[in-house]
Design brief:
Elements: E1 3-10, H1 15-27, E2 33-37, H2 43-46, E3 49-59, E4 62-63, H3 66-74, E5 80-87, H4 94-104, H5 107-112, E6 115-119, E7 121-122, H6 129-148, H7 154-162, E8 167-168, H8 176-184
Parallel strand pairs: 1-2, 1-3, 3-5, 5-6
Antiparallel strand pairs: 3-4, 7-8
Length: 186
């Protein structure tokens, strides 16, 4: 007999893993859930589950690990695939988030795979060295650019502040739409 749900993720700084754990904690009350890092998952292992939930961070316009997760799902016997992405961008940046989904999912996948975005944050201390250097360089460039800008709006000020240092804007509340989607599919 198949287990209910596999929650798998690819996490670099911890936000995606934290959200995966929150989702598992919420769903485990009424479901048989397993939680695994994507590195541990094979198509055969995935076949032991009805529903697969995959999470990855949004990084440079792509969802880390999504290509591999979709491939594993396509080669498995699982019947449902749900995706979530985490990132430093606030949830209110809806048009940017929708564009990211269009760049990561085909037209058919956009309608077939429920997908969710959950704001997380930026953790310079946990970033790989080269990524941290690139982000700090980008933050410096943006800071100089913003100093020259005469008509800064609120979004400009927030962006400048957000990339300057580590922060955490994650919240358990952001898993609710995904949890409700899973529960409605039963």
């Amino acid at each position: 007999m198949k287990a209910d749900i596999l929650i798998t993720y690819k996490s670099v700084t911890g936000f995606t893993r934290d959200y995966a754990e929150m989702i598992a904690g919420s769903l485990n009350k009424d479901n048989n859930c397993a939680l695994m890092d994507l590195k541990e998952v094979t198509a055969e292992r995935m076949s032991g589950f009805d529903t697969v939930i995959f999470g990855g961070r949004m990084h440079a316009g792509t969802v880390d690990g999504l290509k591999k997760a979709k491939e594993l799902y396509g080669n498995s016997k699982a019947s449902r695939f749900i995706v979530f992405a985490t990132g430093a961008m606030p949830n209110i940046a809806e048009s940017t988030i929708e564009e990211m989904w269009r760049n990561n999912l085909t037209g058919a996948e956009l309608s077939d795979f429920p997908h969710f975005y959950m704001q997380g944050g930026l953790w310079y201390e946990r970033m790989p060295f080269m990524e941290k250097i690139l982000m700090k360089t980008f933050a410096g460039i943006m800071k100089r650019k913003m100093k020259k800008k005469k008509d800064k709006d609120e979004m400009d000020r927030q962006f400048e502040e957000m990339i300057a240092k580590s922060y955490d804007i994650s919240d358990k509340e952001y898993i609710r739409p995904l949890v409700e989607c899973v529960e409605a599919g039963k």
